[in-house]
């Protein structure tokens, strides 16, 4: 698993292309030749960019679901809705298909935000709203999600 770090801003051009900021492009360099999968986020109005190796790991998990269980089939259909295989061109641009631009309400300013092993792609205004903290107390969330995890003997989670 490749851990991606950082938050970067860019602008979308008239054709729906995003120029990957160079620090992000460097982090994704080993994935450039294999391509990427771009999809709708499950929980947010943003897009998720999976390096192909990460996508394949996710598909291995999903392929273990029993397809004779209706909920599993419904999940698979919705999870893969709008999925596109995309590449970064020689100039470092990513073409975002129009249906995904519409889903994420991408207009002009875009934020690439690392999410461990994938990259979220947000309309800048929606991203700022999502991290503003108005709807979630981050301290409570951090304690609930991470508070009981202590894998190391050093006391640091």
Task: Explain how this protein is built.
By secondary structure, the protein is of the alpha+beta class. Helix content is 32%, strand content 24%. It has 6 helices and 8 strands. The protein has helices spanning 22-27, 52-63, 70-79, 98-103, 124-131, 138-146; strands at residues 7-11, 17-19, 36-40, 47-51, 84-86, 93-95, 109-115, 118-123. It has a 6-stranded antiparallel beta sheet. Strands 2-6 form a two-stranded antiparallel ribbon. Strand 7 (109-115) and strand 8 form a beta hairpin. The two termini are 19 Å apart. The mean pLDDT is 90.
Features:
single chain, alpha+beta, two-stranded antiparallel ribbon
Strand content: 15-25%
What topology, given as strand order, has the largest sheet? 1-7-8-4-3-5
The helix fraction, in percent, is: 25-40%
Taking the alpha carbons of the first and last residues, their distance comes to 19 Å
Low-confidence stretches: none
The oligomeric state is single chain
Category by helix and strand content:
alpha+beta
**Which word captures the global form?**
globular
Report the average pLDDT across residues: 90
- Could you give the order of the helices and strands? EEHEEHHEEHEEHH
Largest sheet: 6 strands, antiparallel
Number of strands: 8
Helix tally equals 6
- What is the C-alpha radius of gyration, as a whole number of Å? 17 Å
């Amino acid at each position: 698993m490749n851990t991606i770090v950082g938050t970067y801003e860019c602008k979308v051009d008239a054709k729906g292309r995003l120029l990957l900021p160079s620090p992000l492009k460097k982090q994704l360099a080993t994935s450039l030749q294999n391509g990427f999968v771009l999809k709708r986020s499950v929980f947010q109005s943003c897009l998720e960019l999976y390096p192909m190796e990460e996508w394949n790991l996710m598909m291995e998990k999903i392929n273990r679901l029993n397809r004779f269980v209706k909920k599993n089939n419904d999940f698979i259909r919705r999870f893969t809705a709008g999925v596109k295989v995309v590449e970064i061109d020689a100039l470092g641009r990513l073409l975002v298909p129009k249906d995904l631009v519409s889903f994420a309400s991408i207009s002009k300013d875009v934020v690439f935000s690392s999410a461990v092993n994938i990259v979220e792609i947000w309309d800048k205004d929606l991203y700022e709203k999502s991290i503003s903290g108005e709807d979630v107390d981050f301290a409570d969330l951090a304690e609930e999600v991470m508070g009981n995890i202590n894998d190391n003997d050093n006391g640091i989670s």
